[in-house]
Structures are given as C-alpha cells and as structure tokens.
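Exercise: predict the fold of this chain.
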Amino acid sequence: MITRDVFSSDEYVEHFRPDEEHNPFRAIYASKQADVLHAVRNILPGQAQVLDLGGGMGRMAVPLARRYQVTLCDISREMLNLAATRAGKAHVERSFRTCQVDAARRLPFEDETFDCALSIDLVVHLPDPVASLREIHRVLKPDAQLLVDTTNSTPWWALRYPSYVGRRPSRWMRTLRGGGVLPEWQDIVRHYTPAQLRAMLVQSSFSIAEEWSYGPRWCSKWFLTRCVRTED
C-alpha cells in the first residue's frame, strides 16, 4: 500500500501526470482546468489575491498569475520547483509565489487574506476535509470564492476508463468496492458523492453557487463546485 509520505516526496510527481497522452483522464482534466480558469476570471477583478492550495506544478496557478497575485501551496518541494519553472517560462514571477504547506494543518496565513481559493484534486487526499475547508474559510475574505472538487465515490465511471484499473478481475472488484479508489491508494485516498461534498462545504460555512460535472453522463467521474464564503 502507498503511504501518505508519497505526497511530500518526489515520487508523487511520477504519479500525477494529468497532461500526458497516456492518461485516461487527460481530456476531462483539461476541461476541468478550463472551467476553473474561466470561473476565476469571471468573478475576480485584476490584482486580486488567489490561493491555490495543493496546486502541484501550477497548472491553475501559473495561468492565473498573468492577471492576479497568486500564492501556490503544495506539500511537495519538487512540485513547487516544477511550478516555479513554469512561472519563469510564462514570465509571471512578479505575481507568483510558492509556499511549502501541508494542507492538512493550519495554514501559515493571516485571517481574511485572499479573495479566492482553489482546492483542486486535493480534498480526496485529506484526512479531515472539513478541518481543511474551515482553514480555507479562515484565510478568505468575506464573500470570497472557493473552487473545490472531488472524485465521485459512486464508482461506475471506472467502466468508461478500463486502463485506469487494468485487466485483473480481483483488482476491479476491490476498486469498485473502494469507491473508485485503486487498491494501493485506499489507505490514503477517499472519494465522495456530490451530496457529501455539499455537506462538508455547508459545515465549513460555504454556500453553493455553481456546479460542474465531468466524465460519463450516466456516472460522472468528477464534480467541481464554486461556492461563497459565508459567516460562521
């Protein structure tokens, strides 16, 4: 089984390659990225403060730094190095900074610092998502926006992506029983239904403003939510 140390090590860079041609989810990763960028640009004026928590190699943060002041946080130093290289190539270094942060702990920012936060491909990795969402709430300004997603724990979407699981029937059974999580990741990853994500957001004092889904129409693979910070 894979342990939580994988996220802070360089090893996770090898696991998380959303833009590579062989990735079965490449097209929907691209669609989700486009929707996140479009949503942020629609709701925020230029020079706003954006927090990208668990943002990895900067797929969202670097494009947004062309217009906003972006703080990219990740637990992996190697991911942050990759992001800094991307930012240099995009010539956005002045509006882009990185911070090595464990999203499962208290965030090293003052209350009400940011106008918008992203939590993309992160919630499923957190041991206590509500605690982390409450930390995001703390560092957001009143009425600020959060974009957050989860993988669907109703696992039938996996049938659309057979290369994700492989050929062994026993592996399929364990993956489906694990809510779509591959067997080797089940100790540290948990998927959620849309209702569970909404409940966690309400518990964390966010109100739902907009929702998207990705993958098969008969069973979505991902759900993306835009929500607004409300008072506790």
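Check your answer against the key: The first helix runs from residue 5 to 8.
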